[in-house]
Amino acid sequence: MKFSIFLLFSGLVLSPVSAIVKTNIDESRIIAECLKSYGGLTEENAQRLVRFKEWSEDYEEIPCFSKCYLKNMFDIYDDAVGFKEEQVTRQFGQVLYNACRHRMAPLPNKCVEAYHGFNCLVNLEDDPFVLIESMANVSTQAKMVMRDCLHLFDQYQWERMKEYKKKPVREPIPCFTKCFIHRLKVYHQQKLQWNIPALRTHLGVPKAEANIQHCFALRRNGDICAWMYQEFTCFGLAST
């Protein structure tokens, strides 16, 4: 799940003030309420919200905004109990909750406590290693291999991991798929043949009874990274 506050940030306009927020009515109302003690949705506060998304490690641009926003928008935080594990897990998954548990630890200052947790959830939501660990129907061995393969690429490319779930035509990190496919030995290079049972065991594709014959008809060119990604993606998209 994505924090809808990013929809707010992406729609910020500094002038006119009446056009500052382009988001859903409920969120607009909640944000206005959380900014009430700071004068509401003004141009100045719009600029502060833009700075807010820079996510300073410990400094909250608008003090106590996170506590108010999380409590009223998502119901994942409460002054008495702190972060609600069940609600956080339901909305963001167990892996992300576990990764941020240390940043959700109780603190005397509840505003700081809420901001620390909010900061972590937002910053790690698209963390490539969290994304890998969160992959459904992927074996533990496959996740380990993917992590190892990712380390072979420059870190500036890691942020592209989030694009894989969209299954784009071109591979977001060229040759990443080839790396884990070869290491898992789910494709026999000499026979030019996929090991379908092993694919299902380690990577959860293709689904049982899925029609994948058209995947084998894809044109293979000299770029093994490209066609291997395309065929692997085709297996995942194939319907039964």
Kindly describe this structure.
Strands 1-2 form a two-stranded antiparallel sheet. With 240 residues, it is mainly alpha-helical. The chain is built from 14 helices and four strands. Helix 2 (25-34) runs antiparallel to helix 4 (65-74) and helix 9 (140-150) crosses helix 11. The two termini are 27 Å apart. Mean pLDDT is 86; it is low at 4-23. Helices cover 51% and strands 3% of the residues. It has two domains: 5-124, Recoverin, domain 1 (Orthogonal Bundle), CATH 1.10.238; 138-237, Recoverin, domain 1 (Orthogonal Bundle), CATH 1.10.238.
Number of domains: 2
Compute the number of strand runs: 4
What name does CATH use for the topology of the largest domain? Recoverin, domain 1
Shape: elongated
Indicate the low-confidence ranges by residue numbers. Answer: 4-23
- Helical element count? 14
User: How does CATH name the architecture of the largest domain?
Assistant: Orthogonal Bundle
What brief labels describe this structure?
Recoverin, domain 1, 4 strands
Structure described in brief:
This protein has helices spanning 5-10, 25-34, 43-52, 65-74, 85-92, 94-100, 110-124, 128-133, 140-150, 155-158, 176-184, 196-203, 213-216, 224-237; strands at 77-78, 82-83, 187-188, 193-194.
